Amino acid sequence: MPPNNSKYASANRHAPLVDIEEDGVGLASGDVLIDIDGPTDGLIEARSVDGIRPYNDWPNDLGFDVVHEERIPVELGVIGHIPAYAAGTLYRTGPGGHEVLTEKGTIWNTNHWFDGFTQVHRFQILEPDPTDPLATTRIFYNSRRGTDGMIEEIRRTGKLSGFSFGQKRDPCESYFWKIMTIFLGKPTDAAPPNTRNTGVTISINPPGFPSKRQISEKGALGHTSGIRSLWNKTDSAMLKEIDPDTLEPIGLALQHRLHPDLQGAFSAAHAKSDPLTGDLFNYNLKLGKNAVYRVFRISGATGKTDIIASITGAPGAYLHSLFLTKNFVILCVWGSHYANYGLKVLWEKNILDAIADLDPRDPNKRSKWFVIDRHYDRGVVAAFEGDSFFCFHTVNAYEERSKEDGKVDIILDLTVYENMDVIKRFYFENIRSSSPCARAFFGEKGDTTRGNLNRWRLPSVDVSEPSRPSTATSHGSVSTPQPLPRAILEWEAPKDESVELPTINPKFVAKAHRYIYGVADRGFSTFVDGLHKYDTETRTVLTWEFHGQNPGEPIFVPDPRGKDEDDGVLLSVVLDGHTGKSYLLVLNAKDMLEMGRAEMTGG
User: Which InterPro entries does the entry link to (predicted)?
Assistant: First the structure.
């Protein structure tokens, strides 16, 4: 899920540039105003897949093998109607190609989809000329790979240096690298940016990080973009800056540049941003016998970074996202714990094999929920314990008045899995539709790799303003009472009706929402098989689906004249598995019917 992400920046100069962090699964990923993840890596030409018939006659192989770049923007052919208010820039970032022909004539390849070479895609949606009554919306597309330096190193050496998400290593190499790692210094952001494979999500104009780009008010096509900087992120403390127009990597930055105490190696690819203030929230994890999560805030107004809580009462875990409400940041430490206090990361040289197995019956793997005050320097104000699970993507969180005065209940939506099978699903041998292993994998583990949409409640959290300024240090460690009060599971949607790469109307971030949109995974293909609109009030679902069509994470663009929560359109990049080409799909978010699409013209 993590490797695909998209973001959308409105062309409406009066619309605030809000960075909404979401993440998901797909064949590409990126982020600019809204996050998108999904199973398509840009616009790719058809190639026949020899050999085995695709699983369920639902082909998707070409979406995992993207090697073509379109560095110069090209205009796409528009079919149907794309409303003018959808004008803006949509970015997608995620894995592209995964094979390298070495100098020795051998083929080197990545094992896991999350380790594919990052490629960024850009769709510029231009509103019709208001002086021409016959004019229609125009869309331009360009893309660029961001790892040319890394690919060249693999071509010369025949191997991958450094750490990865799931790349399988030779046991001897892992052993000696474990020894050598002891003598390595701190990671550096002085390396050439095209040597780092950073590309799970994208952020537009994030506070705190100075841009290395020469800022221009005009984009590549001469329109005012409002995009000052664009950054690729992953589940580490390193970010990569890319040029918003050319998509060229131009710099690296580590989180300790924001604050000297942010020395950990891990963070959430999906940070959270306040849509009103622009403040950005994330955590930094330093592994060890006593793991430390430092939750921090970057001011949207000043760029200053403050650590608002330090948590030592939970094991180090792989956490891809977190939650934000009006008054709180919520960090849920679910069951994806690193084995041996994180030392196994050094041994395996990848994240996947360093995560311990998750047995839902193990009481040590129960989820821990930490509620952190955003405004009054109170640190962790409440902690809860819940059932064990794993999660990639949170949806949204908001507050409801509690039965007790001065307190609120926190409502949280997310997609959960009962164990860690889902991350093993994304080995290429398990996810490509023509792979013999995919049939065996889905026959054995298919159901456990599909998530359930959940709603949880954290009851009676104190929201009152302190009577006097807090004297507690934000760097103090948190000690929590045992046993912790229980987090309450309100409801769970069936797997066939649940979503991944979830998104909502961005106007409802940190507010009570009704509708959740995302990719559907009903087992019809080895990847995803439709787009869902889930109604949290009626607990019903509307679906866009066509056989062989592999959609990416949807992005919601609100209708500025709309009155209802679902007034707007969804943007999703879809791979047509039958033709091997991708297109930008535009759906009416109210009825999930197609309004228009943009396709590559010509052969």
Answer: Carotenoid_Oase
